[in-house]
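Case study B.
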Amino acid sequence: MEIFDWSYAAEVFPLIFRAMFVTLGITLAAFAVALIVGLLLTLLRRSKFKPLAWITYAFIEFVRGTPVLVQLFFVYFAWPMVPVVGFEMSAMTAGIATLGIHYSTYLSEIYRSGIEAVDQGQWEASRALNFNKTKTWTKIILPQAIPPIIPMLGNYLIVLFKETPLLMAISVNEMLLTARNLGSQVFSFVEVYTIVGLLFLLLSYPSSLLVGFAERRMNNRYMRKDKKVKKENVIS
Amino acid sequence: METIDIVGILMRGVTVTVSLLAAAGVLTFIVAFIAGLSRVSRFKTVRLLTTVYVEFFRGTSLLVQLFWIFFVLPQLFDIRLEPFLAGVVTLGLNYGAYASEIVRSAILAVPEGQTEAAIALNMSRFQRMRRIILPQALRTMLPGFGNISIELLKGTSLVSLITLQDMMYLAQNLRASDYSLSLKVFAVLLVMYFVLALPLIILSRYLERRASRGVAST
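Model:
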């Protein structure tokens, strides 16, 4: 037997390639959850009602401090047994919810840094214009806080993408489980796992280059203003 | 089964989880320094090879790497690693790749003037790195290493999928023996992981605060 069977690899490639779209779908859905829940957590943490802010902070630290795999099992197997609020979910939904909530705690930190970077004067100006809270957030603060953090959010999209194989543990048919099932039919995992690894690399490396490019562009865009100010200072 | 019994059973896995964390932590640290220093090497080949290594491990998924090292290496090169060793190697190489970025960026963040001053003092390349650059870079690295240690602890739970009997594995066994225990088992397991992570979390928050104190920012 050859060490790496090319004809077998060619045979299973289309099957794994098809499972890649399941992986991508999970990634996008979980990221959407993370974006929304993350923003919510950030706002709750800034709440004037202190106990709410503390509970949110404790929740964020707890979720960040425990493994996704354990959370996945908790959500899929244990959540239905929780009294009152518990309900059953399909493996796919449980996976998307867990990944989404786990990474929302990371994203909330990024949102926070974006919001804190908005100039204090913007808040004051908004108050001077008699904007209410909703209007202040939607028209003044968020439109300035979010664009600079887009590259960082992109980084987490890639991180999330690489975490999706964990869902195989609750038998979601993503790339890795598909590969394992194919491999166990012929008792050879060389081809299938190599293909999965390469597909991950092929998708995530160009994306990370793209994010790096976006990051540099964003930096330039937000630096330019400072440079101008500095120049004027030199002249005067 | 009472909660305390469940804690007792899962406690048997703590040793595996903690020794995995310790061994992989040491490897991560060593790999991070070797790769981080190689990324700022003056030899292009060294830089290129390290970049390939770092991007490869950062670009693929940890679980895929674990499976590859555990299932594919024996078939492909006849290298058979015990589950524990496979776990340590995978975790160390994966998190080492991430941590090498911390080392690299910390070295690059030391102001150019420090290197120039060291050259003016007639220091060799080695002296420059050991006495001038690294001591200053180290304090920028520490918070990053703190965070990596938390990620590493969380990463150890994956080894249960290659049959290593850590806390996660024992919890799965317990659930398989009695489905009605699911809620208790996984709630206890979450809390146990958090208790293990707590010292690391407190340490890295402390390091973060300390790093932002008493240093003139540019």
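Chain A is about 80% helix and 0% strand. The remaining cases will be described in the next quarterly update.
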